[in-house]
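Review form for a predicted model. The reviewer records the input and the model, then writes brief findings.
Reviewer: anonymous (R2)
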Amino acid sequence: MLFTTAKLCDDYAEQPHFQIAEPMFKNFGGNNCFSGQITTLKVFEDNALVKQTLTEKVTQKILVIDGGGSHRCALIDYELAKLACENGWQGIIIYGCIRNSVEIKELAIGIRALHAQPLKSHERGIGESGNTLTFAGVNFKQDHFLYADEDGIIVSETLLG
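Model under review:
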């Protein structure tokens, strides 16, 4: 589907379950424009559940990770971003950090994160999946829809366009 977030705002901003994320994320992936249905994870400085989730084969899915806004370590690295591409993930939104940013920029996936950070995270397997996540002024709900491009990130309860 071809879209721009500006056009989606023009057409749907008055709908009750249409949200626009605060502009706090940097673009790290090779795809600037991506969309799909949301899968949620909440972890803190631990990417074991992230890896487990990205091993799933999917179609038109976006992984949204609430990493608590931590800047102390990275939740996504090149290997996990590559795994996501291989398994059909369209994008990843991380309320936290990534590493290997130069290599990740070459992958055909959309990735938004707060910053790059060279230190890797722990792998304890602690976290939650499928819950509503709230950050950037948006409620990211499992199975809702996310649209991202150079202008921003939009979340909608329904498929747009």
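Findings: DSSP finds four helices and twelve strands in the chain.
Further findings: Residues 24 and 114 are 7 Å apart (CA to CA).
Recommendation: see findings above.
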